[in-house]
Amino acid sequence: MTPQELRAFCLDFNASVEEFPFGPETSVFKVLGKMFALSTLDARPLTVNLKCDPDDAVRLREEYAAIVPGWHMNKRHWNTVTVSGVPGRVLRELIEDSYDLVVAGLPRAERLRLDRG
Q1: Residue 88 Cα distances to 2, 6, 9, angstroms
Q2: Beta partners for 79?
Q3: Which of 10, 25, 50, 79 is least enclosed by beta carbons within 10 angstroms?
């Protein structure tokens, strides 16, 4: 997945936006104000921080050398994924899971608003 494809995939989710709270080089993808992905899109290698269920996070780190505890994040709930080190299908699933976890934590009224959007 290229940086442009990563950006487009993250922005394809309902109500997702790209913001730059940490400076112009770091893309933060949010849904209703809550972060679900963070990446420096021009970094080499390309990595992305993604929210993950804690049990899945441990399993994924054991399965893929390219998945490590989230850099500068809560390492129980976030992974840093080197994009070139996982199959594209797996990466897309991890991004979608991150988005879904964040949405699941939103207040019910906001989740309902997303469902109608």
Answers
A1: 10, 10, 11
A2: 50, 69
A3: 25
CB contact at 8 A, 71 and 80? yes
| Token pair recorded at residue 85 | 């080190």
Phi, psi of 26 (to 5 degrees): -115, 115
Q: 78 with 50: CB under 8 angstroms? A: yes
- The pLDDT tens digits for 25-67 are 999 999 999 999 999 999 999 999 999 999 999 999 999 999 9
Residue 15 burial (10 A CB sphere; 0-12, 13-18, 19+): middle
Q: Is the pTM of this model over 0.70?
A: yes
